[in-house]
């Protein structure tokens, strides 16, 4: 298994692990016969060496290849690449190699869009370049993709960073993008993604994700209720030793109400001093109420960042607008909320904390 940075915390002799992930999503412009799934496992393994992690499990649906990694997950479909990695991994260092394989092996010559995002790290100083600060990350991304836009949302300690090629709606750049999209023939298929990035979780729940408590990953999946969050998924789960958990879910072929490109992914760092859980899915629902309620009930965080990206024609567009109203979510009140209208996407960011009891 790849080298893992687990640093002893002097306070209580507990291990520190940076659960916060860096997430990069690259969409390529559709091209005849082009498919990222032509890239071989060996080629992905070489890419992941640059990132400092490795593949530990694989599952797939008709549309998505899903890899569980030693540090989080990778999803590969015809024209979309998603890499989400935690710890002190270096995902932006592999972008050059991914673009090369996309061109040489998969037949993709043009990048249509890019999203790079992450929450603020618990220990930013422990990260390796370029991840030691957002400016360096943006500089490297710009060296690959040209003129991207960088945003920082929320308060300093709990902020969420985003880099994208999407211009803000109503700008001259947005008009230009619409023209180029129109000439390429309506590229944007409906798309929506929810992420719930949780910290400071209930220790009783976190115990489930230890070898001491759960015999295997499947037992932890059942006991926590992860298998009920989005029914109809094939689950590929992994329980680390002595603790830690990762899972990918892809829609079962022929699942009712679940399109075959649908995925979910959950990663859990249960150590008490640095507990962290991330949930992400592109499930196409018009309200996220049930999914959010199930996630919060399963993990009981003290605090979380919620982000929703949705194209205007996706069912999730109404969900993003509902969340814009700044609603309380069960036992949680919103501390911050921001809504952004990009050309072709809406984004809702919010920071929630448990009501004081
Ligand atoms: C890979 S998981 C998922 C982390 C994820 N990003 C999250 O949301 O917390 C990390 C957890 O697994 C534990 N772990 C145990 N062995 C590991 C290994 N070889 N590589 C990575 N993590 C390991 C870490 O201590 C941590 O609790």
TrEMBL record:
Naturally occurring in which organism (per UniProt): Spodoptera littoralis
Reactions listed under catalytic activity: S-adenosyl-L-methionine + H(+) = S-adenosyl 3-(methylsulfanyl)propylamine + CO2
GO MF entry, a single one: adenosylmethionine decarboxylase activity
Pathway connected to this protein: Amine and polyamine biosynthesis; S-adenosylmethioninamine biosynthesis; S-adenosylmethioninamine from S-adenosyl-L-methionine: step 1/1
EC number(s) reported in the record: 4.1.1.50
One matching Pfam family: SAM_decarbox
Cofactor note: Binds 1 pyruvoyl group covalently per subunit.
GO biological process, one term: spermine biosynthetic process
Cofactors (names): pyruvate
Keywords from the UniProt entry: Autocatalytic cleavage, Decarboxylase, Lyase, Polyamine biosynthesis, Pyruvate, S-adenosyl-L-methionine, Schiff base, Spermidine biosynthesis, Zymogen
Protein name: S-adenosylmethionine decarboxylase proenzyme
């Amino acid at each position: 298994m790849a080298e893992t940075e687990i640093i002893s915390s002097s306070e209580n002799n507990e291990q520190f692990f940076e659960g916060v992930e860096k997430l990069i999503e690259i969409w390529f412009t559709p091209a005849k016969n082009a498919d990222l799934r032509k890239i071989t496992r060996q080629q992905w393994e070489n890419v992941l060496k640059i990132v400092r992690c490795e593949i530990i499990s694989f599952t797939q649906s008709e549309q998505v290849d899903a890899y569980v990694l030693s540090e989080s997950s990778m999803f590969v479909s015809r024209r979309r690449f998603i890499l989400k990695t935690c710890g002190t991994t270096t995902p932006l260092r592999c972008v050059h190699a991914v673009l090369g394989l996309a061109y040489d092996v998969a037949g993709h010559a043009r990048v249509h869009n890019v999203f790079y995002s992450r929450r603020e790290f618990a220990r930013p100083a422990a990260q390796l370049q370029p991840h030691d600060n957002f400016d360096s990350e943006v500089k490297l991304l710009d060296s690959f993709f040209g003129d991207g836009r960088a945003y920082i949302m929320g308060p300093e300690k709990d902020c969420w960073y985003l880099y994208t090629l999407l211009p803000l709606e109503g700008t001259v750049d947005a008009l230009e993008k619409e023209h180029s999209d129109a000439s390429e023939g309506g590229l944007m298929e409906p798309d929506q993604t929810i992420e719930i990035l949780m910290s400071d979780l209930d220790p009783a729940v976190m115990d489930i994700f230890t070898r001491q408590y759960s015999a295997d990953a499947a037992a932890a999946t059942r006991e926590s209720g992860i298998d009920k969050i989005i029914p109809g998924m094939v689950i590929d789960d992994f329980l680390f030793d002595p603790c830690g958990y990762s899972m990918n879910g892809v829609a079962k072929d022929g699942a009712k109400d679940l399109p075959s490109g649908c995925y979910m992914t959950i990663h859990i760092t249960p150590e008490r001093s640095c507990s962290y859980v991330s949930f992400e899915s592109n499930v196409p629902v018009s309200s996220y109420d049930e999914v959010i309620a199930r996630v919060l009930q399963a993990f009981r965080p003290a605090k979380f960042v919620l982000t929703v990206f949705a194209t205007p024609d996706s069912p999730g567009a109404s969900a993003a607008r509902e969340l814009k109203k700044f609603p309380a979510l069960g036992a949680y009140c919103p501390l911050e909320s921001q809504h952004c209208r990009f050309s072709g996407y809406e984004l809702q960011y919010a920071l929630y904390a448990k009501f004081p009891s």
